[in-house]
Amino acid sequence: QVQLVESGGGLVQAGGSLRLSCAASGFTSSIYAMGWFRQAPGKEREFVAAIGWSRTNTYYANSVKGRFTISRNYAKNTVDLQMNSLKPEDTAVYYCAAKIPPGMSTLEEQYTSWGQGTQVTVSS
Questions:
Q1: What is the 3-class SS of 44-110, one letter each residue?
Q2: In Å, how far are 7, 36, 40, 71, 104 from 1, measured between CA atoms?
Q3: Is the pLDDT of residue 54 over 90?
């Protein structure tokens, strides 16, 4: 059993930066990968980035590549998402999720534990 809590969302102007954090607790040794997903109003949830829990391999959606960086904070047991050069199109509720079975994935259904989400709003 894994529990996830997101934080760090807020309002930022286009071109600005924001850092999200996802705190993991519970049976964290069972986690293979952590992912960030987002859902904009009226849109389906989409993949943003993922990182291996132990190996720290990373993967990014093309829409955020070069602007977002996913990383682990081992001391705090968190996965962070540094978002730079933000665009209004990045406005969404951002969710972190844990994948238990081996293998990296961008598919929402492959992630079994989810946080409650944090709102990110980018103004123009």
A1: CCEEEEEEECCCCCEEECCCCCCCEEEEEECCCCEEEEEECCCCHHHCEEEEEEEECCCCCCCCHHH
A2: 20, 19, 28, 22, 19
A3: no
Q: What are phi and psi of 106, to 5 degrees?
A: -105, 5
Residue type at position 44? E
Residue 34 region by backbone torsions, left for phi larger than 0, else alpha for psi between -120 and 50, else beta: beta
Q: How many residues does the chain have?
A: 124
Distance, in Å, from the CA atom of 39 to the CA atom of 115, rounded to the nearest integer, reads 13
pLDDT of 74: 86
pLDDT digit string (tens) for 63-113? Answer: 999 999 999 998 888 999 999 999 999 999 999 999 999 988 999 999 999
Within 8 A by CB and 6+ apart from 100, the residues are: 2, 30, 31, 32, 112, 113
Q: Report d(CA 124, CA 116) in Å as an integer.
A: 26
Eight-state DSSP code of residue 116: -
